[in-house]
Amino acid sequence: MSNSRHTKVLIIGSGPAGYTAGVYASRAMLEPILVQGIEPGGQLTTTTEVENWPGDSEVQGPDLMIRMEAHAKDMGAEIIGDIITSLDLSERPFQAKGDSGTVYTSDAIILATGARAQWLGLPSEEKFKGFGVSACATCDGFFYRGQEIVVVGGGNTAVEEALFLTNFASKVTLIHRRDELRAEQILINRLMKNEKIQPMWFHEIDEVYGSEAPLGVEGVKVKHTKTGEITNIPCKGVFIAIGHSPANELVIDTLETHMGGYVVTKPDSTETSIPGVFASGDLTDHKYRQAVTSAGMGCMAALEAERWLAEQNQ
Predict the structure, then answer these.
(1) CA-CA distances (angstroms) from residue 257 to 141, 261, 285, 290?
(2) Comparison of pLDDT for 116 and 221, the residue scoring more
(3) Catalytic residue status for 299
(4) Is 119-240 a CATH 1.10.1040.10 domain?
(5) What tens digit of pLDDT does each residue of 18-76 get?
(6) Out of 140, 235, 285, 299, which one is annotated catalytic?
(7) Of 74, 88, 99, 139, which residue is the catalytic one?
(8) Biggest alpha carbon distance in the chain?
(9) 60 HSE (CA, 13 A, CB side)
(10) What's 4-116+244-311's CATH class?
(11) Which of 63, 68, 74, 138 maximizes the CB count within 10 A of its CB?
(12) Does residue 90 register a pLDDT over 90?
């Protein structure tokens, strides 16, 4: 027989939004349960230096998330290392099933499942995932000491990963479909000054190729977006940094979404299309996608959940 747990507020996800919601819901004496999910701490656990978190001129992403988790625990949130595999929002109390077999029921839910890396969708990319193709420089950069590496993308993530990888690689080629980066200017300036990084404008990955036994990347073929000309770039690692998609699998068929799957919330609110269900962080934020804005939305969600429950006489 499966174990069952009930809480006034169930928080699903454990990035800045989830942990901040845990702090505020605990302060409201709601005794929340927070289920961490498949990646405890969220995307910041795969980030190195964070330079835009207020109060810290520089902090390591994993360290920041450890501090947030500890803060939520100290306030009284019960943090559980489980993964929610299904969610029933058809009636209250809401019901969430965990991979552990535990069934969590709750009067209100705060969704903070975040986002995950996007991929190019190439068969050759899929073939070499984990064998030279990665979406996490901080996870895998160490394995490419003294090697040549390719990074794909043009936003903050791509530039940050390219800069980070210069700590290990002998050369980093940044491949971008245009000739203008979308990253913050301070990051662009650093990239342009780094002699190890060579931007390759107006190009896209056409194919990743490598050895079969053992399986491993040996290079990429890139195509010029205007002429179609193919160029071969020898490399040992390929890092895909082209953005993220909201982790909306639990609610894609039940909550209203837009902009490619981001959960819709009411103006200036975290309320979703189902009363008692609140969404925060990168699951709903298609515009800013910053740790500090995610934390702010986690705060909003907890405060709104508290008020909503009070209105329901909970």
Answers:
(1) 35, 5, 11, 20
(2) 221
(3) no
(4) no
(5) 999 999 999 999 999 999 999 899 888 876 678 889 999 989 889 999 999 999 999 99
(6) 140
(7) 139
(8) 67
(9) 6
(10) alpha beta
(11) 68
(12) yes
